[in-house]
Amino acid sequence: MAKKMIKFVLRQFKRETAFINVTVNQMLFEGYEDPLIRSICNKSLIHNLCIDAGIPMRVKFLENGTDDGEYLIDTGLEDNSKIGRIYKWNGQNEVPWWSTAQARKINGTNGELFSPFLSTSNNLPIFIGDLGR
Q: Per DSSP, what are the bridge partners of residue 45?
C-alpha cells in the first residue's frame, strides 16, 4: 500500500526521483533545496500548510559550528561499561517538557561513545539534546 502511494505521489512530479545528487558539503553543512519538497510546497493549496508545519525548503543534516549544550558524561575509567553515559545535560538530570518521569529522564549516551563489546542483544539508550529525548 505504501509503495503504491509513493509511486502515485512521484508520478505527480514526473521529473522527480527518489534520489538527488548533492555534494557532501551540501548534505552535511550548507544544506540543499529538495526539488520534490519545493514542488509540493509551492502548490497554492499546500503552500500555507508547509509554512504552518514548518517544513523547510532546505534540507541540512548537521549544524556546522554549533553545539546542543553541555554534557556531564562518564569517562568509563572505573567501569568501562559506563563510558559515555550521560548524567546531566545543561546542568539538568531530566528535561522538563515531557509528561511522564520516564520520558523526562536523561539516560544513555549520545550515540557517539559507548561501552566496548556490545552485542545485538544489548539495549543501548540514546539521548539527543536537539530532540530533548
A: none
CA-atom Rg of the chain in angstroms: 20
Q: How many degrees, rounded to 5, is the angle at CA 39 between CA 34 and CA 40?
A: 105
Domain boundary among 19, 37, 59: 59
User: What pTM does this model have?
Assistant: 0.51
Please state, in angstroms and as integers, the Cα–Cα distance from residue 63 to each residue in 3, 35, 104, 111, 115, following that order.
Answer: 32, 21, 25, 17, 26
Q: In the predicted model, what is the mean pLDDT of residues 50-74?
A: 74
**Strand 32-33 versus strand 86-89 pairing type:** unpaired
What number of other Cβ atoms are within 10 A of residue 114's Cβ? 19
pLDDT tens for residues 84-102?
999 999 999 998 888 899 8
Q: Do 47 and 99 share a domain, yes or no?
A: no
Q: How many domains does the chain have?
A: 2
Q: Which of 13, 28, 59 is the last residue of a domain?
A: 59
- Closest Cα partner for 69 from 24, 129, 122? 129
